[in-house]
Amino acid sequence: MSLKYAVVGTGAIGGYYGGKLANSGQEVHFLLHSDYEYVKRNGLKVDSVHGDFYLKSVHAYNSTSDMPKCDVVLVALKTTNNKLLKELLPPLLHKDTVVILIQNGLGLEADLQKDFPGLNIAGGLAFICSSKIGEGRIGHFDEGHLNIGSYSCTNPEILEQVCNDLIQSGVRTQVLELEKARWMKLIWNIPYNGMTVVMNCTTANLMSDPVMVDLLYSIMLEVVHGANSVGRGRFSIPESYARDILEMTRHMTPYSPSMKLDFDNRRPMEIEYIYSRPISKAQSVGYKMTRITMLRSQLQFVEAQYLFCDK
Amino acid sequence: MSLKYAVVGTGAIGGYYGGKLANSGQEVHFLLHSDYEYVKRNGLKVDSVHGDFYLKSVHAYNSTSDMPKCDVVLVALKTTNNKLLKELLPPLLHKDTVVILIQNGLGLEADLQKDFPGLNIAGGLAFICSSKIGEGRIGHFDEGHLNIGSYSCTNPEILEQVCNDLIQSGVRTQVLELEKARWMKLIWNIPYNGMTVVMNCTTANLMSDPVMVDLLYSIMLEVVHGANSVGRGRFSIPESYARDILEMTRHMTPYSPSMKLDFDNRRPMEIEYIYSRPISKAQSVGYKMTRITMLRSQLQFVEAQYLFCDK
């Protein structure tokens, strides 16, 4: 039996993975916002390093109340909009629906569970360089795999089926232990999201400077040590993983992470879930993330300057 | 007997203090660079919150080899140009000349002493908001005192006379223990010089944001703790001094520190003496300045981007 998918937030992430699934024949219903009219009329284009594709006819909606109940809901909103989920999700849910939060940061599933106590929740970690490059058009530049982990799924076999569907569609994926996977993803997000904003540059600019590479590495180690303090007895991430992430990024195409794009477009940045939650979580077990706290302060300053000031 | 003064580096600092001394009747010889022709012809103007003044006729030179030997040499170059002192100073020196380095940072006097083993060296700490606002024209916006301390003066009474001359000229001053005074000055320079560059803003912008004020305060505390680790048994700076500096800066006119002006004009920044020396000095006694090291890395990255890259 095939799964019915909903995508909430059809941007660089939701548009890509939802698009891949639809392109491989899955039934996918897309919630759109600004691009709704355009995509309804013209479909969705994905310019991908793995091969371009074009979905001529798309199940497009501008309200979840018009959408069918689905088996799997892929949430790919900015976390700064997660407060909307309380209203957006109910029309999409039947009693076995799994909601997968394909978002970065820590504490997202716990926050959602508070509003939906019985809901089957999972998390997704997208390792992808992609962005919206036009109306109804996604650019995919590098990487692309999507790892998934259960947070409170009473039906974990459905996650296996999601993985199979993704693999069928050409997306590399695996089911991982979620908490560890989220921390591992942060080893990339915390240094690169923030530093590209504060230094106003791409990942490639950062990686071209040995002094900056040392700083990024020391920030990564703070994430590793924070993770291992929190995970003591449950999971552990080796320091060598930070080196791997550095090397991967060194060979990546020059990239502006989503937070940098938010900054460029003067949108709110995802500081809460990517910085504040990990900082407090580590702090709660006695580990102080000094550099990360400094980077967070710089980001909050930058954001306040453009969100609340005129200059 | 009155002292004969030389000013090496007639910019925002040298032009102001040399100008004050000359304006009160002292004999002052100014070494100029880009403004030489203009000042020789038109004199030196100081627009000061304490009262404007104009020196119509100035002893102006574009080479120290044309200057007389002086009793006191006020060095007010950027520290990034201190390597020039080896050539600049000799024509100005008699056997009792005192060279006062009116510059920010740590280790300046020791470096100079290496090149001039027998020289009487002192340091000067300028608490002043001033900048060059045009050809032969200095703007003075706030504060203005200049503290002095001996590094290797065998004739310390001459420093007392310099203080008297400064007081006569309307400059608040006192003789202080130099090492402690340099560290105290760094409690301002380290947070504000670097952060106005990295955040690309004025001191007032920084002070308008409570999150940033907390960060600046924690950076100041690193300076205090570094200073006290280095000064153990010799001197100690109370943490409350950091609060005083914060409050002083909060009430200061919006200001771009000299490092910010260097950044704006894509000139080398004084990272070595203001950041690297204090970091290594503290490190050598076992205190790690984590935030300051991070700020230093950000500054080095920024500088490398504009000094060595095309973008």
Automatic annotation (TrEMBL), chains A, B:
Gene3D superfamilies: N-(1-d-carboxylethyl)-l-norvaline Dehydrogenase, domain 2, NAD(P)-binding Rossmann-like Domain. It comes from the Bacteria. Coiled coil: none annotated. GO terms for cellular component: cytoplasm. One of its GO terms (biological process) is pantothenate biosynthetic process. It is an enzyme of class 1 (oxidoreductase). Pathway: Cofactor biosynthesis; (R)-pantothenate biosynthesis; (R)-pantoate from 3-methyl-2-oxobutanoate: step 2/2. Keywords: NADP, Oxidoreductase, Pantothenate biosynthesis. Its EC number is 1.1.1.169. Pfam families: ApbA (PF02558), ApbA_C (PF08546). Residues 178-302 form the Ketopantoate reductase C-terminal domain. Residues 5-151 form the Ketopantoate reductase N-terminal domain. GO terms for molecular function: 2-dehydropantoate 2-reductase activity. The keyword ATP-binding does not apply. PANTHER family: 2-DEHYDROPANTOATE 2-REDUCTASE, PROBABLE 2-DEHYDROPANTOATE 2-REDUCTASE. Belongs to the ketopantoate reductase family. This is 2-dehydropantoate 2-reductase.
